[in-house]
Design goal:
alpha/beta; five-stranded parallel sheet; 9 strands; binds N-carbamoyl-L-aspartate
Length: 307
């Protein structure tokens, strides 16, 4: 179903495809935990092109490829590739595409994923395109929600933080809508979810509420998805300074939230979740990061037809 396909954004997925990705990830998780030496992608090469900083996404993709028996070539910063010499993205991709079997890329420009995919014959996976989308993060988010909550629908989910530039919330919004969850968007006015996304989600039947009252939102939420204020996306540093630290999740706030609330964060966090929350049992963000490995194994194996 996904063989040869590009992964560009979460609006592209059907429920059947999502089921397939989730089930494949479950199976890889079991095989890894059983200590199996997995060879599904033996003989293949994966390109990991990261033109923007990354810890989890790059290292979990590289680990996923290694655990599948593939080999990896990496660009870990724009400065180390010919992008620094002024080469166009299209030309770089056309070149790498001739070396490998699948390309994973993160790039600072919104829309860059589609351009790259259009210039590659092999499957292409978007690992974050500027303030656009981050579909593989949203897939590991729903994998985590399924594990933590037992079901993917019927929840009230609060998204808080930088909803304007945050590509993770753009991607997850579409999946939460598809599964019939209610969403509450909490942000400073300047960082609201882009109107085009809210309108698109509503046209797909999503129930959405927008507010700046975090405490009230948490009192009715089953899940809160916290995001970092994205310093690097601001043109004006003064504006960033004004907005950072506006919404901080600490233990006192969680103690007043709906009982059993699950806390997710794509990480890295700066100070939007206090460390006193870390030992709360519903604090799932590090488990969430670990789940990324299995979901990315599933994606690599599915798009290359090596499941
Ligand atoms: C996110 C990203 O890069 O968009 N991180 C990640 O991939 N886990 C979120 C962020 O950088 O704030």
């Amino acid at each position: 179903m996904l063989k040869g396909k590009d992964i560009i954004n979460t609006a592209q997925f059907s429920l059947q495809e999502l089921d397939l990705i989730m089930n494949t990830a479950v199976s890889f998780e079991k095989r890894v935990k059983d200590g199996e030496v997995i060879k599904n992608m033996e003989g293949q090469v994966v390109a990991a092109l990261f033109f923007e900083p990354s810890t989890r996404t790059r290292l979990s993709f590289e680990t996923a490829a290694n655990r599948l028996g593939a080999r990896v070539i990496t660009v870990a910063s724009a400065a180390s590739s010919s992008a620094a010499k002024g080469e166009s993205l299209a030309d770089s991709i056309r070149t790498v595409d001739g070396y490998v079997d699948v390309i994973v890329m993160r790039h600072p420009m919104k829309g860059s994923a589609q351009i790259a995919a259009d210039n590659a014959v092999h499957p292409f996976i978007n690992a974050g395109d500027g303030s656009g989308q981050h579909p593989t993060q949203a897939l590991l988010d729903i994998y985590t929600i399924r594990k933590e909550k037992g079901t993917l629908s019927g929840h009230t989910v609060t998204f808080v933080g930088d909803l304007k530039y945050g590509r993770t919330v753009h991607s997850l919004g579409y999946l939460m809508a598809l599964y019939g969850n209610k969403m509450i968007f909490v942000s400073p006015k300047a960082l609201r979810m882009p109107e085009e996304i809210t309108a698109d989600l509503r046209s797909r039947g999503a129930e959405i509420e927008e507010t700046d009252d975090l405490k009230k939102a948490l009192s009715v939420s089953d899940i809160v998805y916290v995001t970092r204020i994205q310093k690097e996306r601001f043109e004006n540093p003064v504006e960033y300074e004004k907005l950072k630290g506006l919404y901080i999740i600490n233990r006192a706030l969680i103690d007043q939230a709906k009982k059993g609330i699950t806390i997710l964060h794509p990480l890295p966090r700066v100070d939007e979740i206090s460390t006193d929350v870390d030992d709360y049992e519903g604090a799932a963000y590090f488990r969430q990061a670990h789940n990324g490995l299995y979901v990315r194994m599933a994606l690599l194996a599915l798009v290359t037809g090596r499941v």
